Every structure is written in structure tokens, then in C-alpha cells.
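Note to self: the last two entries modelled the partners one at a time, which told us nothing about the interface. This time every component goes in together.
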Amino acid sequence: MPFWVQILKGMLRRFLFLLFPFVLFGCSSSQPVGAPMGSVVSSPDLPVSIRQDVYHQVARMETLWRISKMYGVDIQSIMDANGLKDRSSISVGQRLLIPRATQVQSIIPVYNARPWRYIVIHHSATHQGNALSIDGVHYRRGFPNGLGYHFLIDNGTQGKQEGQIEAGPRWIKQMNGAHANAAGMNENGIGICVIGNFSERSVGEKQLGSLVFLVNTLMAHYRIPPERVIRHRDVPGKNTECPGNHFPWAEFKRRLELGR
Ligand SMILES: [Zn+2]
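The predicted structure of the combined assembly is written out below.
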């Protein structure tokens, strides 16, 4: 039985998180097989009153438990709506009907399996994408473990909401990244990709807010200081513009310190 912590919002979330890092959440689901034990932080500001039927396409390493938390719908309701016989009978790419879903909550699992020391910010340099599609792109590019980033911040394309946070398979399995092959960043750095081409334009408000929330959550859990939150272009030995000349880096760092 895993332990889960679900902390609500803002400083209260941070405060409680430090005090009670492993609150028994009492969920009856399980971690993916072979994945480290972890806890989970969900995004704040959930408008539970607005519910509608939506479809969700299953990405790699997603479980019914995580999908149920994302949409605020119990597992049995999702199983009934899709004729699923058991919890493990979902497959990558499958479209699931999520009945009476809330707005998507971003579920951020955190683990103590590795001492992550840096956070490296990227852009996708594309106009669209999600974890499943970039997973496929990276496989086709020859990455044996697919999606090279640990997290994505979606931009409202390919069935995802703007600012939605996706945790990739490498994060769920606590594997090295494949996002910055220099200065040990694939081994020590958490790779976050913001979907969009910020060589052309700036980051949307919802994406930036989600990025601040995600990075603050990871900084707090792994005790990563602000100077170790870096751009791909800051990695020694990397000659790249990533995450793009229009990425509002100073604004992002200022908001990190404000915690919102
Ligand atoms: Zn990059």
C-alpha cells in the first residue's frame, strides 16, 4: 500500500508538505509496477462545480488511479463508462470516456528515490504536442526510453488543456532524462519541457503559472536552490537557444521567489 499526500494550495500546501511529508491518503490503487514509492501533489484551484464528459487518451505509464485523480472521477465510474473489466485493462493510446469530469488537475508525483539537484527548462520548439506524441517522436528519434523530459507543460493542443502538467514515464520510473546531454544534467537534472516555440513568442499565462507551481513543488521537495533552476541554454557545453529568446526568464524566476 503506497503512501500519498495531497496538499491543497499555496503556502498552506508547502507548510503542511514540510511538516507531514507522508500523510496516509488511503487510496486503494497502486503504483505502476516497478515504479518507486512516492507521494503526490495536486494542482490548486479545482472548480468542482463544473463537470462534463470528456475523453482522455492514455499516455505511457498512466494508470487509472492517476487518470481518476486528474479528472476528479472515481475509478469505478471510469471503468463502467468504458466497459473495463479490471484496473489494468487500459492500453497506451486508448481513448477513455471520463464521465462528469472536473477541469483537469495536474498530478505531480514526488519520490525520494533519487537526489535530484537541478531543474532544466526547455521548450518543445513546436506549436503543438503532448506527452504521448513527443514520446513517439523521441522513440522514432532513437531514444530507447522514449520521452526524454520528465515533465511537460501542455499548451492546449492535442487534447490537452493549456497549462496542464504531464508527468512522463521517466519521472514515474525515476530514470535519467534525455534532455541535456552535458554536465551530468541527464543524471542530476529534472527536465521540464514547455510546449511551444518561444523563439517566436512568449509563454502563455496558464503555462507560466503551471511551470511556477511545478518548479516550486520540486524545489521544495528536493531542496533545490533557485540558482540550480536553469535553462537548457545555461547548461555548460550546450550551444542552444532553448527555451527560446522570448521565454520570460526573469519574470519566471521572480514568480518562483514569490511562490505563485
Ligand atoms: Zn532544450
